[in-house]
Amino acid sequence: MSQESSSPTSSTSARTAVVTGASSGIGAATVRTLTAAGWTVFALARREAKLNALAAETGCTPIVTDITDEESTQAAVDRILAAGPVKALVNCAGGAIGKDPVATANLDDWRAMYELNVLGTLRITQKLLPALKESSGSVLVISSTAGIEPYEGGAGYCASKFAERVMARVLRLELIGEPVRVIDIAPGMVHTDEFSVKRFHGDAAKAEAVYAGVPDPLKAEDIAECVRWALEQPDTVDVDQIVVRPRAEGSYTKVYRQA
Ligand SMILES: NC(=O)c1ccc[n+]([C@@H]2O[C@H](COP(=O)([O-])OP(=O)(O)OC[C@H]3O[C@@H](n4cnc5c(N)ncnc54)[C@H](OP(=O)(O)O)[C@@H]3O)[C@@H](O)[C@H]2O)c1
User: Fold this and answer.
1) Is 48 in the pocket of ligand 1 (CB under 6 A)?
2) Which of 37, 56, 88, 156 is the most exposed place for a label (fewest CB within 10 A)?
3) Which atom of ligand 1 is nearest to 115's Cα?
4) What's the CA-to-centroid distance between 134 and ligand 1, angstroms?
């Protein structure tokens, strides 16, 4: 089907979304927002108990999935496709590990971030792309402003987020003329429960210091609303990129903090 022959308005007949990284933070908020807006949602992550709790709350379908694992991801995709058309893939699974300078950075941390943020996103996107083309659907990535402006201590995470953004941008170019939208949402500081705790290997004090004194960091719900808005534009309107930060953050290194 050519783009010209697809409906100019967003189809409501197949409003089914797949959300990765759904067990916490931005992904869980996205599941809540999309289900509340009437979407059917498949919620993917590794932690079964958290997914089940979210399913009980929202009516989403939980699928325990490790997107760094080929077999696990294929099994999830097979289950999703057997259930019918898919209109959107929201790539939210991801994260930062460590904040060491390049000189002393841990290669395993960098490898893990690349496996998850880049290759994991690539893996599930490749598998769902044919179905998304059939439904005039959307591939959406939650990248980061870390993929726009690198900062000291952030080289590993920033490199993976630069790569994720490049992947989305090039996919957009490669799909021109085909009925698929590619959307990149790049958040700045979002205060989620787990992101910084994981980054600092469980050190809660270091994690909280990230947000110390910042009047109003973004909330996961703010990003979820960007996702919903972008997905619910007409099929022919591609929201290429959204960069969204708290008002108090001009850049990663220019953040207003109250004393
Ligand atoms: N928080 C921020 O300030 C911020 C800013 C910009 C961009 N982002 C990006 O937004 C996304 C979500 O961040 P967040 O703050 O919501 O962090 P989060 O709460 O730590 O969420 C990360 C999610 O990824 C899932 N995940 C991790 N490894 C996975 C794997 N191998 N397979 C499947 N799922 C996996 C986690 O669930 P399981 O452990 O259950 O698998 C979790 O649901 C990330 O891509 C992050 O880089 C965050």
Assistant:
1) no
2) 56
3) 31
4) 28
Cα–Cα distance measured from residue 242 to residue 236, given in angstroms and rounded to the nearest whole number: 17
Tell me, using a 6 A CB cutoff, whether residue 54 lines ligand 1.
no
Indicate the average pLDDT of the chain: 95
Is 157 among the residues known to form the active site? yes
For the chain, where are the E strands, in sequence order? 16-20, 40-45, 61-64, 88-91, 138-142, 181-187, 241-244, 249-251, 254-255
Phi-psi region at 71: left, alpha or beta (left = phi > 0; alpha = psi -120 to 50):
alpha
**pLDDT of amino acid 3:** 41
The proportion of the chain whose per-residue pLDDT surpasses 70, expressed as a percent, equals 95
Q: What is the structure's pLDDT at 7?
A: 42
Supply the pLDDT for residue 73.
99
Please list, in sequence order, all residues whose beta carbon lies within 8 angstroms of the beta carbon of residue 109, skipping any fewer than 6 positions away. Answer: 97, 98, 100, 156
Which protein residue's CA is at the shortest distance from atom 7 of ligand 1? 144
Ligand 1 lined by 26 (C-beta under 6 Å): yes
| Residue 196 half-sphere exposure toward CB, CA atoms < 13 A | 15
- Tally of helices (H runs) and strands (E runs) in the chain: 9, 9
So what's the pLDDT on residue 14? 76
CA separation for the pair 205, 10 (Å, rounded): 45
Is the Cβ atom of 113 under 6 angstroms away from ligand 1?
no
- Kindly list the structural domains of the chain, giving each domain's residue range(s) and its CATH number in brackets, ordered by start: 16-249 (3.40.50.720)
Kindly state the DSSP code that residue 4 receives in the 8-state scheme: T
